[in-house]
User: What shape does this take?
Amino acid sequence: MIALIATALVGLIAGGGLGWALHKLQKARTLRIAREDAQEIVDEANEAIELKELEQKERVQEIEMEMWTKVEPDMLKSEGRIEDLQEVANEKKAKADAIVQEEKKKLQEREADVKTQEQALRGQEAELGKIKEQQKSLNDEFVQKLTAKLNTSAEEFKTQLKTMMEEEAVRRAARLAQEHEEDTKEHAETKAKKILALVIDRFARPYCAERGIGAVNFPDAHARKLFCDPAGANIKAVQDSCGCDIIVEEGMDMVGVAGFDPVRRELTRRTLERIFKEKKNINPDFIKKIAENQKKELFKNIKHDGDSLAKELKLEGLNAEIRQMMGSLRYRYSFTQNQYFHCGEVGWLAGLMAAELGIDIKKARRVGMLHDIGKSMDHVQEGGHAVIGADFISARGEAPDVVHAVKAHHFDEQPSTDHAFLVIAADAVSGARPGARRSTIESYNQKVSELQDIARSFQGVTDCFVLSGGRECRVMVNGKKVDDTHALDLSKKIAAKIEEECNYPGSIKVVVVRETVVSEQTRKELA
Assistant: This one.
């Protein structure tokens, strides 16, 4: 049994091995046949590629021959043209070479001439050196003889000659300076008037007809009754909130506002107008609230006005406090002239005059605008507004020459720069032009009295009349005591004394009238 099983296993193993061997042989045969087929395919592909390459080469040759056939006539023409051009170029080159050779020959000749001239020049230099030596010897000999004759040394004589030449130069310079000064004095007034006329013609800033308002009208009797309460609490509330005195009199339909600070007066005026516009609930708390709102709005307007003026004059780098003070001048008046607009006018006028004279325009505008800044503070500080303003801008970084021009525009210190004198002139033009300022009756009467007192203080004056709104002083003199020559001198003395003792804008004309009165009485008896 066991033997049969073993025999079966051996048979199975032998059959499996034989089957595996047959499978390997079949696989090898199939692989060999596939490789042979693949090689045949590759060989056929290579033959096809070689055939295709040969066809392409033949086609390329055909195309080249065809293209060459087409361009051959043009190429031949081009070759012929190139040959012609080459011949022309050769001819030009030959001519150029001939010219170069000729120029080289000329240059060699010139170099030979230069060498000859250099040799001659060296000879002349040698002769000149000999002449200089001879001249030096002669000069030394002349100096020795001259010093021996003058009994002095050469250095002393040089010193004397130098002194004489310096004295002569000083005399000539003094004479020229005197002639220039006389010419300047002779034509200065004419030139100044011409410049002022040009500046005034060019000045086109709008005229400000605005005047200060010192009172506020009641809109009706009911508003007056509400405001003027029996206890006076409303008036006191306005005074405490705004810092100005309120004046309400019986029989008058207005409220007077009194105070030294122009900004506070404007605040009071705005507060009163706002209160009267409401016409209801007028009480101290309501008044304080209105005053606070108006104060904020007023300060905002002041800042805007200061910035606007600086922007209008194209001024840069102005301190914020300076701009604020310039804005507060919007509510300051001098002889009824608004100082905010006056400072703007002076800035423009000073800039225009600076342009005519050829000096710094921006600095002229700057000092012109700042010249009256002290008027925004002169109600709380002692001293003139020019000094107050100069100290204020100096503490806030303005240049020393700008501070000097502001301080000197009313001669608080002697003006010493061009810009200082420009501000003085521009200030006078702005303040003295017709309609710019109007005097009150008190100041006008004071001016008339001063002019009459000055004129009557001179001997021989019989009377004095002030005409043309204070612009002319007509003086009557006794013809027996004052002759024509004395009258001319008298007018100059009166004008000089007015300039010295009075301070009014513009000019005052002094006219002396010499009057001679002759009378005679008839003596005839009646029949």
Q: What stands out?
A: The two ends are 225 Å apart (CA to CA). The longest strand covers residues 461-467. The chain is about 70% helix and 5% strand. The mean pLDDT is 84.
